[in-house]
Write a sequence for this structure.
């Protein structure tokens, strides 16, 4: 099967999707999302946990951090 | 894409003015939605991605470069959000079952099923390029711009997607 054959088979089997537009006004949903309080992501929590663990294991780093701040 | 908005509206958007942002949303939501549907191929999921896209745009407004077009910028954000949606759909097969197979009108049910399975086997990056290039027949340069990758990357992904689709169809006995 050539590339052209493949594209032809796919296009014949998959009609164009309906791209009319959103079914409802999504501005209010977007506003709710914008006004929602920020949430901690798992990566943020993971980083925070890693920092705490590092400071517990290497307490000398605390003085290093204090020096820089 | 909608006409490029006034520089003044864009400047107010960058400053975080909600009214200017709503104006941009109203101007671009239809075009952005249509772009997202072409990638995710499920209108309900595309609505979620549309909200996610504009939410990301608002959060990243300080990084918008007014010397570039808002249309191209929002399309890139939409493409990334759509790719994230494809990854989520891949993790939740309930949604991915809806894509190609749900498209009505194809005469051969077996072929339709085989193509749905073949598409489902593609990783999201390849799936998006395959849909945009093979189904929607968009120029590779336009796809590269939306994905923010060199055109060579689009060619490479398309090549890999075609090979994977051909193999998947062959495994299901579709030789053509």
């Amino acid at each position: 099967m050539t590339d052209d054959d493949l594209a032809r088979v796919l296009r014949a089997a998959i009609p164009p999707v309906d791209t009319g537009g959103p079914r409802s006004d999504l501005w209010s949903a977007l506003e709710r999302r914008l006004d929602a309080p920020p949430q901690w992501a798992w990566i943020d929590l993971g980083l925070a946990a890693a920092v705490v663990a590092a400071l517990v294991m290497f307490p000398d780093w605390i003085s290093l951090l204090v020096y820089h701040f | 894409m909608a006409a490029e908005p006034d520089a003044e509206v864009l400047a107010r958007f960058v400053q975080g003015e909600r009214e200017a942002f709503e104006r941009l949303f109203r101007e671009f939501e239809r075009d952005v939605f249509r772009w997202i549907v072409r990638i995710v191929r499920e209108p309900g999921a595309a609505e979620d991605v549309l909200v996610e896209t504009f939410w990301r745009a608002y959060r990243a407004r300080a990084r918008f470069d007014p010397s570039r077009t808002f249309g191209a910028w929002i399309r890139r954000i939409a493409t990334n959000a759509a790719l994230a949606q494809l990854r989520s759909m891949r993790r939740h097969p309930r949604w991915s079952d809806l894509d190609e197979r749900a498209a009505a009108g194809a005469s051969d049910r077996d072929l339709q099923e085989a193509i749905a399975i073949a598409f489902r086997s593609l990783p999201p990056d390849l799936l998006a390029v395959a849909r945009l290039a093979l189904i929607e027949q968009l120029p590779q340069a336009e796809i590269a711009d939306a994905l923010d990758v060199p055109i060579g990357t689009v060619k490479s992904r398309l090549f890999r997607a075609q090979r994977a689709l051909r193999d998947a169809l062959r495994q299901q006995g579709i030789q053509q």
Observations:
- The radius of gyration of chain A is 26 Å.
- The first helix of chain A runs from residue 3 to 13.
- Residues 47 and 53 of chain A are 10 Å apart (CA to CA).
- The mean pLDDT of chain A is 85.
